Amino acid sequence: MKHHYLLAIGAGLSLAVFTAPEALAQTELSNRPDPAAAPARPAAPYVAPAAPAPPPMEGYYPANAIGLEIGWGGPYGGLGAHYARMVSRNVDINAGLGIGLGGKIGVGARYFVRPDKQVSGYFGASVARSGRISNVDVTVNNEQANYSMNPSGVLHLRGGLRWQPGKVGLLGTVGYGLRFTGDPVVYNTTYYGQPSQQLRDVVNVLTPGGVEFSLGVLFGFGD
Question: Is the pLDDT of residue 15 over 80?
């Protein structure tokens, strides 16, 4: 019986001796890098995510608008057109020209109180230049006169309401123009002599500056 145990132990030791080198060789092979495998690539550098884009300006007003105005005493004449560009949520800058006594051209800016509402009040200022007119005949109570009008510079202080339900809006404006270039009227006294004060008052109503009231339509485009 003891011989059987001794034989079994001897067989086990022999098996361990023969299999140990093979297992060790397999372990070494598994730890060696595969020459056919592609080399490992270095990790890509960390790139911080881009900052989120700022939210769009809230409001009803398109970024750009073409305006047509009709009225009295405006910076762009009795009938004029202008282009306006929103430069911030509340402010636009505008430039235009129009038909009046001698024509007008000007630039300005407007501040809108509540651009997030369909109806908003606004106030602003414009600087305009009127053109020259020559040899205009006028008659007041049978008194005649002839005059010319030199170019003038006028500072317009304005305010009103803007209604903008969509791409098309309305603009109502009142204001006052301050002429900063002096009296532009020159009378031709060769034929009619010096005009009366009454005639002068009538002509002064037609000179640039003074009270403004106008109504405009705005056609918006852009975001």
Answer: no
| pLDDT tens per residue, range 79-99 | 999 999 999 999 999 999 998
Handedness of CA 196, 198, 199, 203 (dihedral sign): positive
DSSP state of 71: E
pTM: 0.70
State the CB neighbour count (10 A cutoff) for residue 67.
19
* Cβ-based burial of 65 (10 A; exposed 0-12, middle 13-18, buried ≥19): buried
Domains present along the chain, CATH in parentheses: 64-221 (2.40.160.20)
Tokens of 132: 């020259």
Residue 146 and residue 185 in contact, taking contact as beta carbons nearer than 8 Å: no
- Pick the closest to residue 87 from 117, 112, 53 (CA basis): 112
Structure tokens given for 72: 């009295």
